[in-house]
Amino acid sequence: MKRLWIIILVILLVACAPTDNTGQTSLPTVSIQNKGSDTIVNLALAWAERYQTAHPEVRISVTGGGTGTGIAALINGTVDIANASRQIKTEELDKAIANKHDPVEFVIARDAIAVIVNPSNPVNQLTIQQISDIYSGKISNWSQVGGENRPIVRLSRETNSGTHVYFLETVLRQGSKEDKTLFAQNTLLLPSSEGIISEVRLNENAIGYDGLGYVTEEVKMLAVAKDPAGPYYIPSAETVNLGQYPVARDLYMYTVTQPAGAIKDYLDWIYSAEAQAIVTELGFVPVEKPSSAP
């Protein structure tokens, strides 16, 4: 009789086990929330899709909204991983620590910021100073930089974007913390990388900047130099790796604390040859896992 009850109990446990739509017993799922940089979002989505194929027990939710949005969620503890196209700021780190979080930084790829114009624009190259002068409003006509007598239409990402912040600090202010140069007031702020590509493609007078992974053949990338004597370099994986292209940056993921379990496994996989091959496919520059990474 006792054996009969054991058999019945086993049958009931199997019957109550969760199943998928094929009727097969499903595995318990682990959810990872990933939010932030629009520069990284397509890469993060591609990673999540590939990883989940091999690890069906893991569900990775990826959303954009900008680096500022991702880091704000990290500070509040509402994401597991924040994507960022710039480093976390000191004041952001202080807020996270005040909320009893201990963010950990991972460099997961590299990127170049391409300066782009309409293909009909005869200008092919600019210095960092010229780009700064264009975006700050000191230069307002293409004829001032060797182009036609046309007004310059400046396009930028919105202020919540890590790309916007990086471009402001690295190009407009040329890395100087004392420099207070700002974007010209008539700069058009667009909410997405795709929006900048679309506007430059349609507007012969436009200039924009975008992560290399978003640049299409519909726009023209300008060669950029640190000074007028050159040399001028077009952004590419090669010129970034060789340290030649002057507007290149690291791309980051931040965890709320030292990663463990499924989050650590996922981050370890991101440094694998399989995951870094996706980095290359999407136009970014791959990296190796640093020896100091957990």
The count of helical stretches stands at 10
User: What string gives the helices and strands in order?
Assistant: HEHEHEHEEHEHEHEEEHEHH
> Could you report the average pLDDT, rounded to the nearest whole number?
90
Coarse shape = globular
Classify the secondary structure makeup into a structural class. alpha/beta
CATH superfamily of the largest domain: Periplasmic binding protein-like II
Name the helicity range: 25-40%
Span of the ends, CA to CA: 54 Å
Keywords:
alpha/beta, D-Maltodextrin-Binding Protein, domain 2, 9-stranded mixed beta sheet, 10 helices, disordered N terminus
Protein model, in words:
It is a single chain. The protein has 294 residues and is an alpha/beta fold. Helix content is 36%, strand content 21%. It has 10 helices and 11 strands. Strands 1, 2, 3, 4, 6, 7, 8, 9 and 11 form a 9-stranded mixed β-sheet that branches. A two-stranded parallel sheet has the order 5-10. Helix 3 runs parallel beside helix 4. It is globular. The termini are far apart.
